[in-house]
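Work Package 4 report. The design task specified in the project plan requires that, given a folded chain encoded as structure tokens, an amino acid be chosen for each position. We show below one input record used in the internal validation round.
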């Protein structure tokens, strides 16, 4: 199943909001709150994941129905942790494996290539493992409708 433009834009918009929450909270926890870098990043990462989950559940993938229980959030969190691991792996390979140790190389590998690959993994995992559609949902409100080619009831269009 190929993603449509609305789904991609919704996912990207939610991701940008989650990134802003992560960065803003990390900055506040690191600065005025005086927490250590790992504690601050852990808390900001969990907050960012929570915002992304809520945004995707209530927005981008709303047409699939509300997920129930703790399992979907746990899977979403695991997918996001895997995406973060991909970013770290790209940085580690570039910095330690290839010997590209400049700040520019670290930025390109971690925040550029790593972010791109991590986002692709997050998108795939989110739509495949967390917010998957159920077969035979028919044309109920909020479902894919093959006659009009779009989602009904989605905030993204």
């Amino acid at each position: 199943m190929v993603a449509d433009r609305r789904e991609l834009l919704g996912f990207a918009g939610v991701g940008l909001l989650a990134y802003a929450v992560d960065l803003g909270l990390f900055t506040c926890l690191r600065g005025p709150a005086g927490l250590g870098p790992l504690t601050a990043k852990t808390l900001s990462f969990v907050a960012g994941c929570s915002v992304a989950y809520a945004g995707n559940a209530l927005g981008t993938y709303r047409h699939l129905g509300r997920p129930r229980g703790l399992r979907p959030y746990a899977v979403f969190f695991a997918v996001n942790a895997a995406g973060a691991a991909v970013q770290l792996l790209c940085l580690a390979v570039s910095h330690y494996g290839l010997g590209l140790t400049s700040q520019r190389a670290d930025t390109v590998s971690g925040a550029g290539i790593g972010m791109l690959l991590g986002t692709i993994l997050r998108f795939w995992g989110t739509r495949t493992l967390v917010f998957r559609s159920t077969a035979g949902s028919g044309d109920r409100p909020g479902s894919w409708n093959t006659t009009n080619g779009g989602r009904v009831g989605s905030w993204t269009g």
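Confidence is low (pLDDT under 50) at residues 135-157. Validation will be extended to a larger panel in the next phase.
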